[in-house]
Every structure is written in structure tokens, then in C-alpha cells.
Amino acid sequence: MGIAVWRWLRGSRRVPRGRLRTGAVSEIERIPRRGGDRVQDLREGFGPIYQRRYTVRISGSPLTAEQLIGRLGDDLNAASPVEIAVFDKISEVSRPLGLGDEYVVHMPGPWNCPVRVVERTPESFRFVTLSGHLEAGEIEFRARGTEGNGLVFTIESWARSGDRLSEALYEGLGIAKEMQLHMWAHFCARVAELSGGHMIGDVEVQTERADVSEPGRKRLVTRALSAVVTRTFALAARLRDRPLHPEGLVFDATLVLHGTSRYWGVPFLDDRAELRGRVRLSRAVGLPPALPDLLGLALRWRQPQGRDAEPGPTAELLLATTGHSRLGRHLLRPAARWSPSFYGSLLAYRAGDRRVLLGAAARQAGTIPAGLPALAGALDDRPLLMDLVVATEFGPWERFGELRLQGPARSDDREPMRFDPARNSISGLSPAGLFQQVRGPTYATVQQVARRAGVPRRVRRRQPEKTAP
């Protein structure tokens, strides 16, 4: 297990990852229900469903695709990283892998993973998980020939966690997910060696994730927490129109996007574009300017769509002053200046199977104290420039664009800018985690309360006094 962890730390984080974008749910619906005893179908699992594809391209191999699959079927352990997984055949040991054969995959820890062969062709074979496996689903191993006597070997799985503990290790902590990625990426590299050829480039890993609506304890917890938070903020909205960020200034904004070195499968993070929008900067609590406060940055823009990049649906992003480090990015941080400061999303979004955080780092072109008059004066003189950055929850920040804010400043007291990032989501980024699910209903309720409390007061002021006929 120590060897496995060392290899994982050394290599798995560098494995190129992408998104399938094929629609995991539609793929899963085509998988037939398997007969036989002890079958642990993916419809019986827990948590989201993952479709994963690991691909390695091979050149110079003397084997055909059929011969490569035959050699792999004779001894799966020849390719498996045996410090993580050992395939132990428990049926018809003397003959090659065939339909109906069963294996137990021995893994470190207090569990083993039984599987059964449910499909076998000359160039592929497929396992289904059995009762007691960490996952519920299927996995296929296949090879095909290409022009120039090349080979492409692929492992593709459609699975979800087999029980609640596995879901916590896989989806919650992410440990099992990373170890699994290391295992099958290593398996593909070993298959290239077994073929007698050499690997072209890196092992490609592509993933698509599909959430499954399932009633149960998790939904009840979400509803309970949502009710408590919503009612608390609704009460606060009756006392003050905006419970948080009561006063702010609005500026014109330009987003210049250029992408990162990796592919996220999200247009906002991958595309090159120049977009127009508006930004509201505000102090969360409304403390005196001399005192540090949580500073907020609310951004709204129109997302391009279609080949001509015509303006599409509105997108919104809410940021607040947080730390910049791997730990600090998960904590709010009061600040005494608008710039230089770091603004983070705090709550995670999901890009495929990865949870990511977004941020904006104000450049150190001069200090702007955290008061609204000082902010208005500074942006009248020159634009405020910020680097737009993205990171996995504990990975390094990567710059994907620039945000430019320019004056003149405008107040939104008469026509408040109200934001609902759950309703106006960024294309390709879905809210991740319990508090993200709670945020949408809370924002909607608070804004309804504020409108109901505010409109009658304005209407009464406009009514003329009655006169005698």
C-alpha cells in the first residue's frame, strides 16, 4: 500500500484529464439489466454515476487487437499494479477468460471486489460487479487496430459507489477516485508493454459525471438545512432590505478570457473571448470604513452562444475576500483594502468529475482602502485589473483570464442589482456540495421578501392626497 501511495503521489496528478461530454445518462440507459445471482447493477448503487474512459495508443506492436486481448485475458495480473489489485480467478482456472467466469479482485484494506464476465468478443471482454464490490456497474476492456499496424487499447467503465462508505471515500474525500485513476492508467501503460510496442503520448483519461435523483437521508438533510438558513435570512430581510452587502457600487466590466494549459470542458475556462458585464463591489456587514470587513465582488455577464458568439443567457459569479492558500481559500477573510486582495468563490463548482474554485486576484498597482468613496475615486483615475483564476479544491491556481473594472461608479440604491448564481449559472459549471444546494433557495426567498417589503412603501409615497369633491 505504501508503494501504491508513493506512485499515486508521483504520477496520478500529472495524468491528463478531460471530459467525455457524451451524455453519461444516455449511455447508461443502453446498458441491459444483467441476469444471474449476486449481480450489483449500477441502478442499485449510491451517489452519482461516472462514465470513465482510459485510452492508450500503441505503435510498433507485432500483435493484432485480438491477440492482445487474448494475452491479457490469459493473465490479467501481467498488467495490473499488483500492489493495488490482484485478479484471482475462482472459476474454470485452467481455461482462458470466458463468458460467465468469476474473479475476485483483492485490494488493500478490509474488502475484496468480486466480478463476473458478462460479454466476451475476440477484441473485448466486460465485467459486471457482484455483491460486496466497492462499486456497482460494469467495466469493459477492448482493443482495435488502426492504420499503420497501430493499436488502441481502451478501458471504459460505467459505475457508481456500491455503498455509503464507498461513496464517502470516492465522492466525499476523493481518495478512492484518485487511486482508481492511478490503477487503470498504470494498467494501460503495462498493456502497451505487453503488446511489444511502445506507447504514443500519455494515457488519456476522460470522464463524465451524472447526478442521480434519489430520495433519502441526504435529501432530508438538505431540505432541513435549507429551511433553517432560508428562514433566518428571510427574517433578516424584513429588518434590512439586504441582510448582507447592504451598500455597494456598480462598475462596467470587461472579461478577457484565454483559457489555461489544461482542458476543463467548460467554455468559461477554455475559450478565448472578450465579454462585457457589470460588477458590484460591496462590504458584507456594512461596518465603518476604518474597520476590516468581508468584501464582495458580484459579477454578471452574457454568455456567448452559437458559432457567431451571439449573446446568450446571463451568468453570475459571486466572490468574497478569502485566503489564497490551499487551506485559506476555504475560509472567509475580512480585508481592509479593495486592492491588492484576493476574492474567492469559497464554495465549489463541478467541472466534470472535478470540484473547482474560482477567484479573482486584484493586482498590486496601488492600494485602495476598503471604503466606497475611496473605491469610486480610484476607478475614476484608472481601471482596476484582476487576474481570473481557477483551481481544484487543493491544487494550484491557474490564470484563465483578466477582469477589468472601470468607472464611473454608480449606486444601485434605487434599482438594486440582485444576484442569483443558482438560477444564472455558468455553462458547464454546476454547484457542488451541500451549501451550494442551500444557496439557491435562500437567495430566491430573501429577494421575494425584500420586494414584498419594499414595493408597498414606495407606492404609498407616490399616492396623492385625497381632496374634497
Characterize the structure shown.
- The chain is α+β, with helices and mostly antiparallel strands and 469 residues long.
- Helix 4 (164-172) crosses helix 5 (175-194) and helix 6 (217-239) runs parallel beside helix 9 (434-462).
- 26% of the residues lie in helices and 36% in strands.
- The protein has helices spanning 2-11, 24-29, 65-74, 164-172, 175-194, 217-239, 267-270, 372-381, 434-462, and strands spanning 17-19, 46-59, 86-89, 102-106, 112-121, 124-129, 135-146, 150-161, 198-210, 248-257, 273-283, 295-305, 310-321, 337-339, 342-344, 349-351, 354-362, 368-369, 384-392, 398-411, 430-431.
Features of this protein?
Alpha-D-Glucose-1,6-Bisphosphate, Chain A, domain 4, single chain, about 35% strand, 9 helices, Catalase HpII,  Chain A, domain 1, eight-stranded antiparallel barrel, about 475 residues, disordered C terminus
